[in-house]
Input
Amino acid sequence: MQKKISSNPFKGTPEQEAKLKAFIEENKHDKSRLMAVMQEAQEIYGYLPLEVQEIIADGMEVPLEKVFGVATFYAQFSLSPKGDYNISVCLGTACYVKGAQKLIDMLSDQLEIGIDECTPDGKFSLEACRCIGACGLGPVLTVNDEVYGKLTDSDIPDIIAKYHV
Output
């Protein structure tokens, strides 16, 4: 799956930027620390928007393309913000053949976002993942750490309503 760059506007704070720049300062002498810097940046911001990647590239004195390449290669990095409630739909084989795509379509319609996007209010984000190991419950989705299984698209409105308080 190709990672999608966020369409949400970047909302970093001066405090976050200062924290990142201090960490970069401690590590800029060693280019092999790039991943550690990126991990810290994601910890600070929750994801790696282009603006943060530029700070990292400048501070570490590496090309922006290298930072972007690492961010898009490793699954641990996200280019999109996560909502308060991150909905992840399993697209492993068992879930897919049992209708997982219908769940994604219904979630996209209900939340008015696509895969790897976040609602403008920051409440929900949607992602697709590979097998989560609950094949007998397929199709499966998680909302943060809560697992929902044996779903149909008609279950989606009730699941969303549970978190839409």
